[in-house]
Design brief:
With 489 residues, the protein is an alpha/beta fold. The protein is built from 17 helices and 17 strands. The strands form three sheets. Strands 3-4-5-2-1-6-7-10-11 form a nine-stranded mixed β-sheet, with helices on both faces. It has a six-stranded parallel β-sheet with strand order 14-13-12-15-16-17, sandwiched between helices. Helix 1 crosses helix 17. Bound molecules: adenosine-5'-diphosphate. Adenosine-5'-diphosphate binds next to strand 12, strand 13, helix 12 and helix 13.
Length: 489
């Protein structure tokens, strides 16, 4: 199958969050399975150019209709970790992709609307009609609108669109003038509530909504989250449109790059291990205790790694720090926040615990340290209020750190309680709680710590089960192929 992704992010050259990981991981797996994959993204000035091989300009006079005129563009070709990429390089005065940042500009909507229009225009001009065009979140949500409302009439009748929503919180809201700028001239047609118009604000266009309405299939990043956003008020206003389009909407779990995240080969950790040598993992705990000047006893070590965002259940994290220590465990946190108030609060908490031999809070973003903590911890706490998929619990399991999670979104689809799950013993891999409050959290955390302290063999078995779970891209990549196959001509 011929698959083209249109995306604002791609790991590692333009990584902001999970979206970039998904495009890279899914594409790599599809390529391994023999599919043809190409990725179209902006040629940001801040791309990690040392990670791009064979970068060359292949077109330098390509014109994109924009704002009642034309914008000259170059197209560059290159390989990112073996994946074929096309980079869009507009030569306009606005310098759309010369801002030393992927997002965060006042004209983000225009920048990414341009990316979408240029991507489809380039495919058309170069006579390419991929079987599948895969779009991601609001930045490429207009691509299906351009394809089906402009380019189909020009003969691009073959391609079908799959649209994945990674985060419902950011929907790309903008004024109606974007229609004129992008060449979608039929105002009356597009400004309808069954089209691009936001369901809550009649003065505003909603790009994610457009992606849902105009794509052939829509996915989000876990089966449980698909239900939550449609039927349980977690769709940030998009519930009715998802309900209308439920026949073409599903949830597919994200996977992990099992080659990169592998405790058997990971150079960041002290001692490498796998499920068969799981007892060696204890050496990594000792290394972590030394690194953070913690008491070097064999106490259960609970960790939290994540954005310090209210979504992640920060009150519960703070409660868990005290509760763990009271129960005789240790606690390590690695996190950072874009919100200065939250960052300040956790920094002062970190100072407060500075002398503690059982608590260490590391405020900052540190990828290799995160892997040392996955390898060195016994439990990974993920008490999220909501969680579309969640990678933290998947990484924790890959490294044998038993997840303690709230039953929501992708956490509910990947962590199964060792005491209460309906699944067989061999598939149970963690401790789960339902209610988003301290009592709920304690119901899982207390069991977890108690299990480690009183049933060490059982704890080791659970940790092994977690390591043996397969949360690689193998299955999700098959699931996406099935979706593609259901919509191709
Ligand atoms: P989200 O995308 O909502 O932030 P996910 O669980 O999907 O949450 O992904 C978070 C990823 O970011 C994980 O790989 C986690 O290890 C990593 N991460 C989060 N915070 C940090 C940090 N402070 N330092 C290093 N890695 C972090």
């Amino acid at each position: 199958m011929d698959i083209v992704h249109i995306t604002a992010e791609l790991t590692p050259v333009a990584k902001v969050g999970g979206l970039g990981d998904v495009v890279a991981g899914l594409s790599a797996q599809h390529q391994k399975m023999g599919e043809s994959v190409e990725i179209i993204l902006p040629k940001y000035d801040c791309l990690l150019y040392d990670q791009i091989d064979d970068l060359e300009m292949i077109v330098d006079d390509f014109k994109v209709p924009w704002d009642h005129g034309m914008v000259d563009c170059a197209i560059w070709k290159g390989k990112v970790h073996g994946l074929s990429c096309l980079f869009i390089d507009p030569k306009s005065d606005e310098g759309f992709f010369h801002r030393n940042a992927v997002y965060g500009q006042v004209d983000d909507i225009q920048r990414f609307a341009f990316m979408s229009r240029a991507a489809i225009e380039y495919l058309w001009q170069s006579d390419r009609q991929p079987d599948i065009i895969h779009c991601h979140d609001w930045p490429s949500a207009l691509a299906p609108v351009f394809l089906f409302e402009i380019y189909q009439q020009l003969g691009m009748t073959r391609s079908r669109v799959c649209f994945t929503i990674h985060n419902f919180k950011h929907q790309g809201l903008t004024g109606r003038d974007l229609l004129e700028t992008t060449g979608l001239h039929r105002q009356d047609y597009f400004c309808r509530t069954d089209s691009l118009l936001d369901s809550q604000n009649p003065h505003v266009l909603n790009l994610t909504k457009g992606g849902i309405v105009f794509s052939n299939f829509v996915t989000t990043v876990s089966p449980s989250h698909a239900i939550e956003v449609m039927d349980e008020e977690q769709g940030f206003g998009l519930e009715p449109v998802l309900q209308t389009h439920r026949a073409k909407f599903t949830g597919i779990l994200n996977g992990l790059d099992y080659d990169f995240f592998n405790p058997f080969t990971d150079p960041a950790i002290d001692i490498n291990y796998d499920a068969d040598s799981i007892t060696d993992k204890a050496n990594n705990k000792l290394a972590l205790q030394k690194l953070f000047s913690l008491n070097e006893e064999n106490k259960p070590l609970v960790a939290f790694i994540g954005r310090l965002d209210p979504q992640k259940g920060l009150d519960l994290v703070e409660h868990a720090i005290q509760q763990s220590v009271q129960l005789g465990a240790q606690f390590v946190l690695l996190g950072s926040s874009l919100d200065p108030m939250i960052q300040k609060h956790f920094k002062s908490l970190s100072n407060h615990y500075d002398d503690s031999q059982d608590i260490h809070l590391e405020i900052g973003f540190n990828e290799s340290l995160s892997r040392q903590i996955y390898a060195g911890s016994d439990f990974m706490l993920v008490p999220s209020r909501f969680e579309p998929c969640g990678l933290t619990q998947l990484l924790a399991m890959r490294y044998g750190s038993v997840p303690v999670v709230r039953e929501t979104g992708g956490l509910a689809d990947t962590v199964f309680d060792v005491d209460y799950s309906k699944y067989p013993e061999s598939q149970r891999n963690g401790f789960v709680f339902k209610d988003f409050d301290k009592t709920g959290l304690d119901s899982a955390l207390n069991r977890a710590i108690h299990c480690y302290q009183t049933q060490p063999q059982r704890y080791l078995e659970i940790s092994r089960h977690a390591m043996l779970c397969d949360y690689s891209w193998n299955q999700p990549a098959q699931d996406y192929l099935q979706v593609y196959q259901s919509i191709v001509h």
